[in-house]
Amino acid sequence: MSTPYTLRPLVAADHEATAHLLHRSLVQWYQSRLGQGSRFGTSHEPFRLFPAVYAELDPGQAVAACDPASGELLGVCFVHPRKTHVAVGIVATAPAAQGRGLARAMLTPVIAQARRDQLPVRLVSSLLNLDSFSLYSRLGFVPHTLYQDLALAVPATGLPGTAPTGATRVRLVTDPSAAARLAALEHELHGLHREPDYAFFLRNQVGDWRVAVLEDAHGALTGFLVASHHPSCVMLGPGVARDEAAAAALLWSALDAMRGASPVFLVPCTAASLIQQCYAWGARNVELHAAQSLGPVPPSRGLSFPTFLPESG
Ligand SMILES: CC(C)(COP(=O)(O)OP(=O)(O)OC[C@H]1O[C@@H](n2cnc3c(N)ncnc32)[C@H](O)[C@@H]1OP(=O)(O)O)[C@@H](O)C(=O)NCCC(=O)NCCS
Questions:
Q1: Residue to probe by mutation, ligand 1, list 1, 91, 131, most atoms within 8 Å of CB
Q2: Distance 10 CA to ligand 1 centre (A)
Q3: Atom 5 (ligand 1): residue with closest C-alpha?
Q4: Residue range 169-193: mean pLDDT, rounded
Q5: CATH number of this structure's domain 148-305
Q6: DSSP per position, 184-211
Q7: Quick check: pTM over 0.90?
Q8: S-S: 147 plus which of 40, 113, 228, 266, CB 3.0-4.6 Å?
Q9: What are the phi and psi torsion angles at 274 (to 5°)?
């Protein structure tokens, strides 16, 4: 059965309905398939942060699918066009409208525009969620990097053991002019350019962000890591590091600043030593994600820490 819908840009008047839709669709999907609906809480209120962040970061880019008769919001798809690629996420369809082509319909014009602009489309999708994996796979997306989602309840007394080498050199930056330097490192390591995202985090006007950098003895940037301290989303990333040692120093510092909280972060599955270090700090696996691309994936060096807010595959 097909659901009639109209597509239009998401507007500020949709934000409350968007928060409800994100909460409802995630709870319903994870509860009905995995018995894990409770991980998204009982209230839509924390989900208000998502449309607020995305409207500030990429105004006018999100796609809304609506019931043509009632105007009810049936689906949302967030889009982050950058000069090297187009990032997509979150995509969500109202429970009653799922499985009827709505998500494909929202993504189709986004993919068509990316093709016209000759840009790859990138996202990070849960490997526990076969509906979303299949949706992207049918549209031609190919997984290229696997990530472990780790959750770590940081003790009030701090992480066990000693700080990794380099942790004392990690420092916070707040000047928006640092965005270009961060973007240049990510471009060098992963071929992606995301300066607007870093300028957004450094402005720190919507959400609650900390941006930490690590430099070597000569002052060259070896990595950076953004942390969301907003109670609606306690998460580390995005970030990049030249090697696992730099990544460990950045992670340790970000976690130490979250004593008493339980942040989630994504670590590339190939970062074997770093993952063992995270377990030693008390991290637990909570999900698996695959970075997927529709279009060429530039060669990658070092590590990346993707996030869902904003999607940074
Ligand atoms: C993931 C989600 C957005 C999909 O939305 P939807 O509107 O139901 O998706 P669609 O009906 O457009 O497309 C689903 C596609 O996956 C295909 N599919 C689903 N399960 C499949 C499977 N096991 N094997 C192969 N294909 C499968 C469907 O056939 C369809 O492809 P088609 O259009 O080529 O026929 C929806 O389930 C949802 O909102 N989930 C909760 C929120 C969420 O988890 N979002 C993703 C992470 S942010």
A1: 131
A2: 21
A3: 103
A4: 97
A5: 3.40.630
A6: HHHHHHHS---HHHHHHHHH--SS-EEE
A7: yes
A8: 266
A9: -65, -40
